[in-house]
């Protein structure tokens, strides 16, 4: 696959997770970010472990179809690996990451990868949506919205989450996270994330969930969310949880 000109946060995460699906430009950006912030591998391991616990919790509720936004690289404990009985549609807007994902999932009949702008679910190919998330709009599904909130302003994020709430069937569950104000103490690292990057305080994030109802676990530092043992000692860079569209 041709070397992209620009790094991607998703492929930098693959590098930090010890994966093999990134390019030299991603490694250079990951190393520069670590130079400005500090080591990142443990933070992203803990974030991926949270994804695993959240997706398993949703699958344990009987949900067997997942739609993933801003999916990044579909390996290293990603949705179809932690919920192997489920069907999964991964979506992203980055063409290089989408091609990588499509190559990785080429032999799978349970997981697919396509273009999808989270802010407009109409951009998802309906054939892919109905194949991998059967009963979309009629049966409860899992919506995975991780690593994305930081790239959307408040109005866009609130509208997007509300449109998703409207689109899914009652009983559906959202896995969501947001970036804390951790990078405020690391201005050089913050600058590397670009001017559109948004950090949020918990009180600022809560109203953006709109009608989605967080479970009693709350929206907490991801290492603490239903931790199976002592939480990993990582900075509270991400807060997250799951939230439901209640069944009638
Ligand atoms: C920080 S990465 C997170 C990747 C993955 N969710 C994870 O946790 O490892 C953010 C991803 O969101 C994608 N992205 C950014 N804006 C998006 C949008 N409007 N809709 C869908 N994906 C988007 C980027 O291309 C990138 O792959």
Detailed description of the structure:
- α1 packs across α2.
- The mean pLDDT is 97.
- This protein has a single domain, classed as Rossmann fold.
- With 248 residues, it is of the alpha/beta class.
- It is globular.
- Strands 1, 2, 3, 4, 5, 6, 7 and 8 form an eight-stranded mixed beta sheet that branches.
- The protein binds S-adenosylmethionine (SAM).
Give the arrangement of secondary structure elements:
Blueprint: H1 9-16, H2 24-37, H3 41-60, E1 65-69, H4 79-82, E2 87-92, H5 95-104, E3 111-115, H6 126-132, E4 142-145, H7 154-167, E5 173-179, H8 187-192, H9 202-205, E6 213-214, E7 220-221, E8 238-244
Parallel strand pairs: 1-2, 1-4, 2-3, 4-5
Antiparallel strand pairs: 5-8, 6-8, 7-8
Helix pairs in contact: 1-2
S-adenosylmethionine binds at residues 8-10, 13, 69-72, 92-94, 97, 117-119, 146-148, 151.
Keywords: Methyltransferase, Transferase
Organism: Micromonospora auratinigra
GO molecular function, one term: methyltransferase activity
Quaternary structure state of the chains depicted: single chain
State the shape. Answer: globular
Low-pLDDT sequence parts: none
Strand share of the residues? 15-25%
CATH class: Alpha Beta
**CATH level 3 topology:** Rossmann fold
Order of helices and strands: HHHEHEHEHEHEHHEEE
DSSP, total strands: 8
Write out the CATH superfamily name. Vaccinia Virus protein VP39
Averaged pLDDT, please?
A: 97
Q: Helicity, in percent?
A: 25-40%
Organism: Micromonospora auratinigra
Keywords: Methyltransferase, Transferase
Protein name: S-adenosyl methyltransferase
GO molecular function, one term: methyltransferase activity
């Amino acid at each position: 696959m041709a070397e992209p000109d620009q790094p991607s946060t998703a492929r930098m995460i693959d590098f930090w997770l010890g994966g093999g699906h990134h390019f030299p430009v991603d490694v250079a950006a990951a190393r520069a970010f670590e130079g400005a912030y500090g080591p990142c591998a443990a933070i992203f391991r803990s974030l991926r472990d949270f994804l695993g616990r959240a997706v398993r919790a949703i699958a344990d509720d009987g949900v067997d179809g997942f739609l993933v936004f801003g999916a990044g690289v579909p390996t290293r404990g990603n949705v179809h690996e932690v919920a192997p009985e489920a069907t999964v549609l991964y979506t992203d807007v980055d063409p290089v990451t989408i091609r990588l994902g499509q190559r990785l999932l080429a032999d799978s009949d349970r997981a697919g990868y396509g273009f999808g702008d989270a802010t407009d679910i109409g951009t998802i190919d309906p054939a892919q949506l109905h194949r991998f998330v059967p009963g979309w709009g009629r049966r409860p599904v899992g919506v995975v919205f991780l690593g994305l909130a930081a790239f959307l302003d408040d109005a866009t994020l609130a509208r997007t989450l509300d449109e998703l709430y409207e689109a899914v069937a009652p009983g559906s569950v959202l896995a969501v996270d947001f970036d804390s104000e951790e990078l405020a103490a690391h201005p050089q690292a913050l600058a590397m994330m670009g001017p559109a990057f948004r950090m949020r305080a918990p009180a600022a994030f809560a109203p953006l969930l709109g009608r989605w109802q967080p479970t009693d676990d709350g929206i907490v530092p991801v290492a603490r969310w239903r931790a199976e043992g002592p939480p990993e000692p990582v900075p509270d860079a991400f807060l997250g949880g799951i939230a439901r569209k209640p069944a009638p």
